[in-house]
Design brief:
- The structure is a homohexamer.
- By secondary structure, chain A is mostly helical.
- Chain A is built from six helices and no strands.
- In chain A, helix 2 runs antiparallel to helix 6.
- Chain A is elongated and about 50 Å long.
- Chain A starts with a helix and ends with a helix.
- Chains B and C meet through helix 3 and helix 5 of B and helix 3 and helix 5 of C.
């Protein structure tokens, strides 16, 4: 419901615009792909057909790559020097999250737990992101 | 604020999971790219440096392509026969929205108005999408 | 032979040009990729080496994605309101064909039959496409 | 008409299948993109709106890249040692055609003549291709 | 000469292999693309033909994106906790370098000086990279 | 060490710049990806976990495609008529190397030997490349 409201009230999302050429950032992009990564791991665990599992790994690899890409863009293009001063943990948080996207993407085990850890790290980044938007 | 709440409450988004392999859909993906398309048209209008304008058109073209891709995926992978029966306007709505993404992407004029029309069409799709999620 | 003639007689293909920026459409693009999807399913069935099968699924996934992309472009960029009035089944035909590209791409079984159904749907679209070109 | 017949008679195109994993080759893929390259150069010449011209160059660059890609795939994956023996000009023909795709793509002038030269080179390759299919 | 020697002596590059799935890292990948970014800025400055300049900006945008991608991969996949402890400036160095790739890619002015600053930052990263390889 | 020197001495690499728009060529790009192809084949042989092997094949396929792409660009964009006259074996060498990238990419067996053969072919091309740079 809240999300629907948000989708139908674009003028209220002034916080999503910034002053750079591409100008629009939202951690939801990384999060949606990460939800997909986790969901695929769950389906993989529940289905042992080899063709299904191969396809699951192919798509999971792509989704993980997209998670990393969206996070890298936030880290490089959105966050600036004053943010890194105020949130000294931010660099490491992004490094952990993109590493986790790799891990959740299939390095090591194919485990929904990895997907959840990835989601938790993205939520920490999102909390800081929206705090900087309010500032 | 509401968005932040949502980002921090992943378990509440059960509606975002469906029964297909890639399993996660959200019209927000198309919407975020469309906000970018509109924002770029505004910056284009406000800056007549030729190198800036060329870069704006390059990036706008990419963002428009992403809007179309996210909408096409929703139309093909998420929506099913019962949805098209219940919402007979849905096919045309998607065709209009993807055409508008092309128009907003630079065909015809580079005009923030086109970007807004695209956002309005995506919001109509999102309304239907979230209704089907509640059903 | 006929195809060779066609390839050597570019001036005769006036029907392949339209009035949009990218200006050239041909359902053959989707069809060639769909032939590849079907051929890969046949080879998959005939060879049970695990590495071969994994590679077959990787390439089939890419080819299916290309089928969908070429069909989406036709549906959004080539076909216009008068076409959809004259051929009311066109929206559903494209939705079925792109869904079939997903299915033939590995959702469900890896079966040449799915590839053939995809080819049949593309041929129905091609028939309409060339009728509109003659009009 | 002939093309329509071909599209509706898939079983007749046995020549389009070969013994490799991806298994389907057709010079039409390069040709369709090259027709697009030439058509864009014509539209560019006929329209001096700067935003239109920039978009034309962006899309032309992408189409040229696709021409090159489709030609490279034919040269590496389809043609084999016996073909190169029988057609000693084949290497140079492909090198000229891919260089012409770069030229038609905007290196040097933006000229429909370059697009036509590219089409002529692709037609020479297609002639050889279909001869090897008949053999 | 030295490079040639290196290219002809693959067994000597044991340091380029690590224990991850994709397993091979080399800052040269980012550097080569960054040289391209700088070279394009020089050619842009020397040629005021509008079509040439538009193409230069299109290609520069792509090359800059590749610089960023190769740097992000190094930062996420190659460097580990002990590296970040030993080189506390490493996070900021990567953030500066990827931001500079964006700047050199056309944000702000199209200036070979930006390209050189990007190369200098990549060289600082490369120095640390090769030190960790020797360790 | 030698490589480090090279990376830290950008001004010494005048040979890496040419007179074309994208202007920078280096066989190291193909070589680094080919090292990755070979390394992945070694890891594949050493680990029989099915998920690991599937991921290895996915990434190997991508790396092989990049090897081919970098070689094709060198062959089409860098080498010119006088080079092909002076080195009549050059066309065949590139055709063999790109075919080997396909083979090393998983066609036939997944064998580090294929990766080594690919590296050897790239080194032959690199020798000629650097000779033409000195000329």
């Amino acid at each position: 419901m809240r999300l629907l409201t948000r989708l139908l009230a674009p003028k209220a999302i002034a916080h999503a615009h910034c002053d750079l050429p591409c100008g629009v950032y939202d951690p939801a992009q990384a999060r949606i792909e990460a939800e997909s990564v986790k969901a695929i791991a769950e389906k993989y665990a529940a289905n042992d057909d080899p063709a299904f599992r191969t396809r699951a790994l192919i798509i999971k690899e792509q989704r993980s790559e997209l998670v990393k890409h969206h996070l890298w863009v936030l880290w490089t293009d959105y966050f600036k020097a004053p943010h890194f001063e105020k949130y000294p943990e931010l660099h490491q948080l992004f490094n952990d999250a993109t590493k986790a996207a790799g891990a959740a993407g299939g390095k090591g085990s194919v485990d929904p737990k990895n997907g959840q850890e990835l989601l938790d790290l993205i939520d920490k980044i999102a909390t800081i992101f929206w705090e900087t938007k309010k500032a």
